Amino acid sequence: MKKRILSLLSPAEWLLWGLSVAAVLAAAGLFGDMEPLEILASVVGVTSLVFNARGNPAGQALMLIFSIMYAVISYSARYYGEMLTYLGMTAPMAALALVSWLSHPFQGKTSEVEVRRMPRREAVLMLLAAVPVTAGFGLLLALFHTANLAPSILSVTTSFVAAYLTFRRSPYFALAYAANDVVLILLWILAGRMSMVVCFALFLASDLYGFFSWLRMERRQKGH
Fold first, then answer.
1. Are strands 109-113 and 105-106 parallel, antiparallel or unpaired?
2. pTM of the full structure
């Protein structure tokens, strides 16, 4: 059983996970501004990203849980944009991505999704679809008097693109989430919550690792 658990991730990925969890706990102790839910959400989040980097559908199941937790955290900080984005878009898309990843295993292995390269035409349509989604959410955020409105709207755009790419099993989903992490780092700096800044800096590192991991996975699956 222990050997099976260890085989879920590579030694480098276990190291990344361990360092990320340690950094979350260190930030909580250093800054003293993290509620128990925020600590738990951060641990769930970094765990999700490590499994996503592996192409394991468990990452999407954990992302669904994280989305609900993060929506509650965002509400308490008056970041209604983040709350609406994660409840109304990221969480449902994580559920759809979970179904998509489970429905497209690589060579029948449910622990690894088959990588898909998105056609250029679909990428253009995705970007066009991001415009009304951003406008619609932006109007809602303005009506709710969302704090730091401009970066909150930008977060909607990057979240939509990232969620769509995740659902379509494109390696570039991790790069889109990395862009979203940069926006969220800015948002939490503006809110003066340095522990959350550390959390999303860890997410940024994990997403960048995930992007290159998926590129390697794609080459391996294609036999290159």
1. antiparallel
2. 0.91
**Structure tokens given for 61:** 């199941």
Q: How many helices (DSSP H) and strands (DSSP E) are in the chain? A: 10, 2
Give the span between the Cα atoms of 19 and 13, in whole angstroms: 10
Q: How many folded domains does the chain comprise? A: 1
Determine, yes or no, domain membership for 3. no
Give the domain extent around 43. 14-221
Note the pLDDT of residue 5. 61
Which two tokens mark 207?
């997403």
Q: Which helix (H) or strand (E) holds 106?
A: strand 105-106
Name the one residue in this structure whose structure tokens are 């990221």.
Answer: 90
Dist. CA 188–CA 133, nearest whole Å: 23
Q: Terminal CA-to-CA distance of the chain, rounded, Å?
A: 33
Banded pLDDT at 2 (limits 50, 70, 90): low
Average pLDDT, the chain: 91
Structure tokens at 74: 């965002």
Q: Is the dihedral of CA 140, 182, 119, 217 positive or negative?
A: negative
Task: Check: CB of residue 175 under 8 Å from CB of residue 148.
Answer: no
